[in-house]
């Protein structure tokens, strides 16, 4: 079984020289709608980068296609599934059910799987497969207002 391992994250603008133009230039097509897509690497100091494919390496260093610092709080993994609109589903994505509930995609360690958690009832959850016909309405970083909508229960 092959599974695509992919991450996304928001570029960390606190680094000197990391402007939107820099990210567009270096990440190219891997930068879409304010997100960088690729593989995740980090260090012991809590810093994280999204990198492209490794194009060269030696015993001291790796040389990826691109190397973009990201805000670790925004990093989400691709779940391996797509919704009915063919959107790849990532951790942190928000979906609305027919009843109006907003579900956040999270990784549930106790079940070792990605699930949908109703934002107003975090003790409940549904399997991701049960969310595939729901409408994607955003993600928790770009659309935090969806996490606080009155009547979202």
Roughly how much helix do the residues carry, as a percent range? under 10%
The class by helix and strand makeup works out as mainly beta
Residue ranges: pLDDT <50 for 5 or more in a row? none
Shape: globular
Number of strands: 14
Assembly of the depicted chains: single chain
Strand content: 35-45%
Alpha-carbon distance between the two ends: 37 Å
* Radius of gyration based on Cα positions: 17 Å
| SSE pattern | EHEEEEEEEEEEEEE
Helix count, DSSP H or I runs of 4 or more residues: 1
Mean pLDDT: 90
Major sheet attributes: 7 strands, antiparallel
Distinctive features:
single chain, 153 residues, mainly beta, 1 helix, globular
Describe this structure in words.
- Strand 10 (93-96) and strand 11 form a beta hairpin.
- This protein has one helix and 14 strands, in the order βαβββββββββββββ.
- The chain starts with 6 loop residues before the first strand and ends in a 14-residue tail after the last strand.
- Strands 1, 2, 3, 4, 7, 8 and 9 form a seven-stranded antiparallel beta sheet that branches.
- The model has no long low-confidence stretch (mean pLDDT 90).
- The protein is mainly β and 153 residues long.
- The protein has one helix spanning 20-27; strands at 7-9, 31-32, 35-42, 48-51, 54-57, 62-64, 67-70, 76-82, 88-90, 93-96, 102-108, 113-118, 126-127, 135-139.
